[in-house]
Design a protein that fits this description.
With 244 residues, this protein is mostly beta strands. Helix content is 2%, strand content 43%. It contains one helix and 21 strands. Strands 1, 2, 3, 4, 6, 7 and 9 form a seven-stranded mixed sheet that branches. Strands 10-11-12-13-16-20 form a six-stranded mixed sheet. Strands 14, 17, 18 and 21 form a four-stranded mixed sheet that branches. The protein is rod-shaped, with a radius of gyration of 31 Å. The C terminus is likely disordered.
Amino acid sequence: YKITSGYNDSDQSAVLRDWQAVNTDELTQPGDLITVTGDTAVRAQYKECYTVTFDANGGVGTMNSVIVPKGEAYSLPEGIFERDDERVFTYWQLNGERKDAGTPVTVNSDITLYAQYDYPVHEHDGVVFTPTNSHLAIESTAGNYYLVDNDVYLPQTLPEGNTTICLNGHDLYLNFDAIRGLDIPAGSTLTIINDKGKGNIVVNIYQNGAQVNNCTAITVHGTLNICDVDIQYPHHPRRRGLCG
């Protein structure tokens, strides 16, 4: 007689380990053959199990929990959660520690894995760009940046060096005082590009805290390149281009 695969207990806190013939110490596994010479009873033996739960941690989507026998290693899956701010799943966090997908974790209790996210690597013409949702990075260090938010504005004074900003489909705001405009230092280059065809440069000019239609000056001691980017003046719709 072939031993059946058996069954798990109703609350899934245990799974079948093996079978044991009553009044013997002999253990058999599901699928094993035994010789039956009379009425025979076998009793299921179980392994204690724990639950592995996946927390979206601000993401959208669901991942079913997994039942793992106590003491066994469980290989962590890729997260399938999504976010609406362009960040993607990168790894799991377990008890404050990073756990990459594919990492085996020994399960000795119920555990919850929290999805962690980051912005993906962005390349344009072979150049790697750093994600930013703030002017602070652009203001402090020259480099290659791509926007991940519609609320980024360009600082009025740029650091020395070459800075390239990829709009990445977002708007870049130039909020200037009517008396003082953008200052590009000597020996520095500011390049603004757009590789998704949707982002714009939006110019807002202020004087004494109020928006005005005066044209702001752009002081270019270095080099300014604007490639395939539309420039908008919300409070002066007929104006196009940057005045200097």
